[in-house]
């Protein structure tokens, strides 16, 4: 390892996030924080960094940049890196190492606690006997449904498969394991089934300052249909999903993924010259979302900016940048 090279564990985590072996905004965030702790341990041992606090800091910043570049949309990733790097302090490599490892552990602990707390808030919106509809696979959304079940409520679920990668299958399995009766449907059947649903529960990859919810592609159409049918829809999102850069007018980058996820290359060849596009996320305007459920309570989307200012001030530092 040279002074700025990522440790093998950082490279492995970055690769797993990029290939979606590690996926979902909260899971990506905790994996990134843990990878920085690993970088700190490795840099405290490596010849190039062990005796040089500035080289150690540079190697942590470089590792954060490697992790940052994996996927662009879930703000939980840069927020995790920010949390850890802003707590890196000390005038010796050993103190720096300790501060990074401690911050990483504290971040993961807070993440788990936040999910538990928001689960309670979201569960209070669900009533005994409710049927919920889900989209994609969100650990925050599942926390709400599971907490409702733990409160003794009987909940059933209509689970959208979520093309093209079918993360709905993971949701179906986890809900089934929690004792929730599940009906799996294709995405295009959602509107038909909304008549049988009491609540739509989705997660978020990022939440913009205007209350726009960035989540798996298809969320915005689902929200519009839910509003038209009079079915309430909530986003379950820990505050690490709040996107500080949107406070200063930046928009959230929507990840475009490989067209082979949409159509098999041979089938495409058979069709002839066509364009294929595969955006992974979309933006649901705040007026179509009933509530954003966080570990700090529930908020109408339009008021989320107040919480954002409290947590981030007017913008976001980039502690991974070269000084
Ligand atoms: C996952 C997705 C999830 C959010 C929230 O997309 O859109 O709804 O990330 O998940 P992908 P969580 O599969 O492309 O990563 O609540 O677990 O953070």
From TrEMBL:
Keywords: Carbohydrate metabolism, Initiation factor, Isomerase, Protein biosynthesis. Pfam families: IF-2B. Its EC number is 5.3.1.29. It is an enzyme of class 5 (isomerase). The keyword Nucleotidyltransferase does not apply. It comes from the Archaea. Substrate binds at residues 23-26, 71, 215-216, 241. GO terms for molecular function: ribose 1,5-bisphosphate isomerase activity; S-methyl-5-thioribose-1-phosphate isomerase activity; translation initiation factor activity. The keyword Protein biosynthesis applies. InterPro entries: IF-2B-related, IF_2B-like_C, Initiation_fac_2B_a/b/d, M1Pi_N, NagB/RpiA_transferase-like, R15Pi. It catalyses: alpha-D-ribose 1,5-bisphosphate = D-ribulose 1,5-bisphosphate. The active site is at residues 136, 205. Reaction proceeds via a cis-phosphoenolate intermediate. Catalyzes the isomerization of ribose 1,5-bisphosphate (R15P) to ribulose 1,5-bisphosphate (RuBP). This is Ribose 1,5-bisphosphate isomerase. It comes from Halorubrum distributum JCM 10247.
């Amino acid at each position: 390892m040279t002074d700025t090279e990522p440790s093998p564990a950082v490279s492995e985590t970055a690769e797993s996030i990029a290939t979606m072996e590690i996926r979902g905004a909260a899971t990506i965030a905790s994996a990134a924080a843990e990878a920085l702790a690993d970088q700190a341990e490795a840099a405290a041992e490596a010849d190039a960094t062990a005796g040089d606090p500035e080289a150690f800091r540079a190697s942590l910043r470089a590792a954060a940049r490697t992790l940052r570049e994996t996927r662009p949309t879930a703000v939980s990733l840069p927020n995790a890196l920010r949390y850890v790097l802003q707590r890196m302090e000390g005038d010796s490599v050993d103190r720096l190492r300790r501060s990074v490892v401690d911050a990483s552990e504290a971040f993961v602990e807070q993440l788990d606690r936040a999910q538990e707390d928001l689960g309670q808030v979201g569960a209070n919106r669900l009533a005994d006997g409710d049927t919920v509809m889900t989209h994609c696979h969100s650990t925050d959304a599942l926390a709400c449904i599971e907490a409702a079940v733990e409160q003794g409520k009987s909940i059933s679920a209509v689970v959208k498969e979520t093309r093209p990668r079918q993360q709905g299958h993971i949701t179906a399995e986890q809900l089934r394991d929690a004792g929730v009766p599940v009906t799996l449907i294709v995405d295009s059947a959602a509107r038909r089934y909304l008549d049988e649903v009491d609540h739509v529960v989705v997660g978020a990859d990022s939440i913009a300052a205007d209350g726009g919810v960035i989540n798996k592609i298809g969320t915005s159409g689902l929200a519009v249909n839910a509003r038209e049918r009079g079915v309430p829809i909530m986003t379950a999102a820990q505050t690490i999903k709040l996107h500080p850069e949107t406070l200063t007018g930046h928009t959230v980058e929507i990840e475009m993924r490989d067209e082979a996820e949409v159509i098999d290359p041979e089938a495409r060849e058979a069709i002839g010259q066509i364009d294929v596009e595969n955006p992974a996320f979309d933006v649901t305007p705040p007026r179509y979302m009933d509530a954003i459920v966080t570990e700090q309570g529930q908020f109408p989307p339009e008021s989320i900016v107040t919480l954002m200012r409290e947590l981030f001030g007017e913008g976001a530092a980039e502690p991974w940048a070269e000084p």
